[in-house]
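Data deposition worksheet. Section B asks for the primary sequence of the deposited chain exactly as it was used as input, without tags or linkers unless they were present during the calculation. Section C holds the resulting structure in token form. Section D is free text for depositor observations; keep each observation to a single sentence. Incomplete worksheets are returned to the depositor.
Section A, Depositor: J.P.
Section B:
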Amino acid sequence: MTAPIHTTAEWYRSRFERFEKNLNGEASSDLHRLRRAAIARLGELGFPTTREEEWRFTNVTPIARTQFTPAPRPSGPARLPVNIGPHAFGSDEVLRLVFRDGHFDRTLSSLTGVPAGVSVMSMGEALQQQAETVLAYLGSHIRIDENAFTALNAAFLLDGAFIHLSEGVELDRPIHLLFLATGEEENQLLTPRNLIVAGAGSKVSIVESYAALRERAYLTSAVTEFIVGDRAVVEHDKLQTESLRAFHVGRTHFQLGADSTVVSNAVALGGRLVRNDLTAILGGERAHCALNGLSVSAQEQLIDNHTTIDHATANCTSYELYKAILDGSSRGVFNGKIFVRKDAQKTDAKQTNKTLLLSDDAIMDTKPQLEIFADDVKCTHGATVGQLEEEQIFYLRSRGIELDAARDLLTFAFALDVIERIHVVPLHDRLDSMLHHRLRQGRVSAEPVREKV
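Section C:
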């Protein structure tokens, strides 16, 4: 269902009224006051346009013109079979929270053996059992008025994941947050909200993945907040393989304490229009973050990665590597900002963006940025856009390798630099297999629906 853009705010207000009526006593909670503020702010902001600098390469008109309906809480088992096998990495060593159309599904999850000092539960459960802790952190670093999508997420916030590690706890099992869009209904709105708090000296690995069971149109507006305590170590891997008719707008925030380490690996393969906003604030001395990303797109997909690394204190380091592989008529966007504040002396920051174009019709817009207000720093940034080297293809073919196989081999080698940085073995192996399969199948298995805007 489509509608003029100016009716969007009214549509979501009417959906919010229905949503509110189903909350029962929860409508008087502190959280719901946040929801009300968010829906009001959505009406004031409207969806971003290409006239705004941060969105000038990404036209969200197809989202703004579609009337998405918030997915209701499931009242029973899925009407259609749900097989999580292809998306679950097949390992009993992984703690797993599964969300069906944005809502926690205990029957599909695996939470046995959670050690003492670790809380792993749905946001809905956490708001009932640990409301004071959740509300102390929720939204403390991501404002509801950043843009229409964070406001939309806050307005319909109902479920997601809550993970809390006490001081000094090191969890040796990855935690997998699996968000499945079942496709039971067309044009659903999914608004998962995730909060991960890693106490001082703790260690955890989080895998956040989004997948579709059917090729349907829907909107995922996801927000994930990490509060990383002093000396804590966090690895975060995000995998997005959603429907090629779907829209995905994700917001991830890392708040780093002193001597903490964050490694983030983001891989995007699916989606018709994808926007990932990622921010890391190095708020304590000697903090370190590494941001790595890989986008693989074809046909008319658009994948936009916006990253911000804020060196707010001295003696911190950051390294960033984002790569994109574009085929068909697809488009890629990379905007990476590094801020070095006045007091952030001895900063060491490096940013690299590399793009491989497999088609003459593919387009990449890249904009690495440095803003430095300190004088004792070491910062570099750079971007390259190119095609496969003919000499390398010739070298492989001269040794008996077919043309398509040679192209695929070189393309995989280009992506491998990012995949090798993922330390969760089941995920690493799955990505290796997925990328090989995608290349063998012509880098895309379905075309997204065209829509004139």
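Section D:
DSSP finds nine helices and 21 strands in the chain.
Residues 314 and 398 are 52 Å apart (CA to CA).
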